[in-house]
Design a protein that fits this description.
Strand order of the largest sheet: 1-2-3-4
Helix content: under 10%
Number of strands: 15
Low-confidence stretches: 2-14
Strand content: over 45%
Order of helices and strands: HEEEEEEEEEEEEEEE
Number of helices: 1
Amino acid sequence: RKRRERLISNSKISSTVSLSVTCDKVHEYKCTKTIKEHTNYINYMYINKEANKLYTCSDDKLIKVYDIANDYKAQTLKGHTETINLLLPLTANKFASASEDKLIKIWEAKSTEYKCTSTLKGHTAGVTHLLSVNNEDGTPSMKLISASNDNTIRIWEPKGDYKHSMEIKAHNDKITSLVYINSKEQVISSSVDNTIKVFDLK
């Protein structure tokens, strides 16, 4: 027993592990194109694979639609008067934008040009989050759910060109995120007020 204790006391026990990794080859990725269209921060972008276009929005109050097949030639969309926070694809030729100007706008491609077809008014502060609701079969219903710095959530029905919305007084402070559970018809919001809330929309 004494011999065993002596062996243990004399041994060096290390709590660290060293791992050496050698890379045989380092691949250098090169930037092939730099696009300078916006004049301020770019807040959001997405790609429409079906239309082969790239969409961006910015603090410069503009939306840019880039034709990828045509060397990223850009179309400029004007309509918002403040920072545009995000874009939401709806269909292959339609999307929505949300802005600090309290508005949501629906944009639709008419021939080769995009035009604003609807302006959704209701929030009293900047719109920070926007999502769409699908039908049971997965097709877009065009119903929208938005959140704002006015601490509310709004449900927008496409009937009547989005003229009417249902307001949910959700939180005591700014809403930081929104998710929707389609199978349960529930919207979940999180907030700076340290809470998460679940709302049934049935």
